[in-house]
Design goal:
This protein is of the alpha+beta class. The protein is 39% helix and 21% strand. Strand 8 and strand 9 (174-178) form a beta hairpin. Helix 9 packs antiparallel against helix 14 (345-358). The structure holds flavin-adenine dinucleotide.
């Protein structure tokens, strides 16, 4: 049966666009979520919205699961293929068009976020959302995950910069939701329903986004703290005093020590906060000084700042190496995600240290902390430790962020990994009806449950 279906799909989409050889199927079974691997039935290389329409009509008729895919960098299993599914790889669909006059960029789903940003920069603008994975993450993946990034404290996540999306529904119908204008008030906001839907409602084929001017004058402050809680307090104090930095990044001493050792860097082995400020040239130094003073008052042992672009790059080197360092230092590693009110940052970092000791597992901390978002990096000696140490530790940490008034995910989503934690969060807020409503929406849009089944909820 599988063979016949694949043959039909090849006739429909062209033999060169449908991949079914075992090596490729094996490769596509992997994503950045190493816990689960599953092989699809076939992979389709998508070149146009019409291709998506054809695949979805076909899959809906034969009730075959469909998993939209960008680069597979989801760390919670959102892009892990369902068994026997058709994976649709949108990366060949990469058009980008900058409309400078109207401050909008239109990008197809397979364009890399970094590529879109580079295109905007040719005109003095930038793409506001910058996930650390921007070189690999696609526009479709970032939309489907409502991704955030370093500039989240200023510009928010994909949800906040998207003006419109083109989507293909499971029955093959194409809709344009929203529009390339800065304001639109026209009934239920279906566009935002698709942002963060993790491929469970339809396939996003293109989007229209706000762009922002590249700041002309930027300076970077870097502060080193002996105590991890003081570093977290420093982040809170900057926001509390009304600064709106371009970025506020956080990294604990565990990650810095490892980065020094593994990547041959030479940073003070302390907890770090990095703050970028943009402002007119005449006031930039004053503002950098003020931020430095706030960080000192929060307990920083040493604070530096610079406006020299080369120096700024050097100061960021250790943050850039954080995730690769953990991945290189341990045979198996996992990146958690949580979001808390800014005032709760010191409490959550304290909890991470306690949980790390309780489960005897290495947990470093990084994050775009300026919007209350942190990523515990868990380093394991073997994959088995995932079940005995890492998962219980992360459940405790991410669960505690609910108690602090926060959420189990700031930007990585639910996927396969956080389905039970999502229920926990909803229960804690007496919001269990939300799952029922989500299921109802899914049923209306995708009655045959072909779109990325088993993600977000069962
Ligand atoms: C080292 C590293 C750093 C990261 N840093 C960040 C970060 O700073 N911020 C952040 O938010 N995330 C980050 N992530 C997570 C991940 O990179 C993002 O979620 C990213 O946007 C996913 O893009 P992708 O193209 O790889 O999507 P995939 O992993 O391929 O897909 C993700 C989900 O989107 C769905 N999907 C993909 N394309 C479409 C489409 N066209 N239509 C409908 N659904 C679709 C998939 O079905 C799946 O559910 C990081 C991951 C890694 C490994």
């Amino acid at each position: 049966m599988g063979y016949e279906l694949v043959s039909k799909l090849k006739e429909l989409l062209g033999y060169e666009n449908v991949i079914s050889d075992p090596e490729e199927l094996y490769t596509y079974g992997f994503t950045a979520y190493a816990v689960v691997r599953e092989e699809p039935l076939a992979i389709v290389k998508i070149r146009s919205t019409e291709d998506v329409v054809k695949v979805l009509k076909f899959a809906n008729e034969y009730k075959i699961p469909v998993v939209p895919r960008g680069s597979g960098t989801s760390v919670i299993g959102a892009s892990t293929p369902s068994k026997g599914s058709i994976v649709i790889d949108l990366r060949p669909m990469r058009g980008i068009r900058v409309d400078v006059a109207n401050g909008v960029v239109e990008a197809e789903a397979g364009a890399y976020v970094d590529e879109v940003d580079r295109e905007c920069r040719k005109y003095g603008f930038m793409f506001p959302v910058d996930p650390a994975s921007a070189e690999a993450a696609t526009v479709g993946g970032a939309l489907a995950m409502d991704s955030g990034g370093m500039r989240g404290a200023r510009y928010g996540t994909m949800r906040h910069v998207t003006l419109g999306v083109e989507v293909v529904l499971p029955d093959g119908q194409v809709l344009t939701l929203g529009a390339p204008v800065y304001k639109q008030a026209t009934g239920y906001d279906l566009m935002h329903l698709f942002i963060g839907s993790e491929g469970t409602l339809g396939v996003i084929t293109r989007g229209w986004f706000k762009i922002v001017p590249v700041p002309k004058h930027v300076g970077r402050v870097i502060a080193y703290f002996d105590e991890v809680e003081d570093a977290a307090k420093g982040v809170f104090e900057i926001r509390r005093r009304g600064f709106t930095p371009l970025i506020i990044e956080f990294m604990d001493d565990i990650v810095v020590k490892l980065a020094n050792k593994i990547k041959g860097l030479n940073f003070p082995e302390k907890n770090m906060v990095i703050v970028d400020i943009d402002a007119p040239k005449e006031v930039l130094n004053n503002l950098l000084n003020e931020v430095a003073e706030v960080l000192k008052a929060s307990g920083a042992a040493d604070v530096k700042f610079t406006t020299d672009p080369n120096e700024m790059v050097k100061l960021y080197a250790v943050r850039k190496q954080a995730y690769p360092t953990f991945a290189a230092a341990f045979p198996f590693s996992f990146m958690g995600d949580l979001s808390v009110p800014l005032s709760a940052l010191p409490a959550i970092v304290k909890k991470v240290r306690e949980v790390s000791a309780k489960y005897d597992v290495a947990i470093g901390l990084i994050g775009h902390a300026g919007d209350g978002n942190l990523h515990p990096l868990v380093g394991l000696q073997s994959k088995d430790e995932w079940w005995t140490k890492a998962r219980p530790a992360l459940i405790e940490i991410e669960g505690y962020s609910i108690e602090l008034g926060g959420s189990i995910s700031g930007e990585h989503g639910v996927g396969i990994e956080r389905k039970d934690l999502l229920i926990k969060e909803l229960k804690a807020r007496n919001n269990e009806r939300v799952i029922e409503i989500m299921r109802g929406i899914k049923k209306v849009i995708d009655p045959n449950n072909i779109m990325n089944p088993g993600k977000i909820f069962d």
